[in-house]
Amino acid sequence: MKRHCIKIKEATMWYFSWILGVLLACSFGIINALWLEHTDAVDQDSIK
Question: What is the largest CA-CA distance in the chain?
Fold first, then answer.
């Protein structure tokens, strides 16, 4: 019984860290896209 609980705990921690990594990657992609949009807008304003 105790051994079974340890395996569930390890699996839960693994999934938790995996979800955190995916969320971090998604947030990095969103921030990168926002930065790209901002720099394009600044470049277009400087051309005019």
Answer: 72
Tokens read off for 10:
């390890």
The arithmetic mean of pLDDT across residues 4-29, rounded, is 85
Report the distance separating Cα 41 and Cα 35, nearest Å.
Answer: 10
Task: Answer whether 0.70 is exceeded by the pTM.
Answer: no
The alpha carbon dihedral of 7, 10, 11, 12 has a sign of positive
3-class SS letters over the chain: CHHHHHHHHHHHHHHHHHHHHHHHHHHHHHHHHHHHHHHHHHHHHHHC
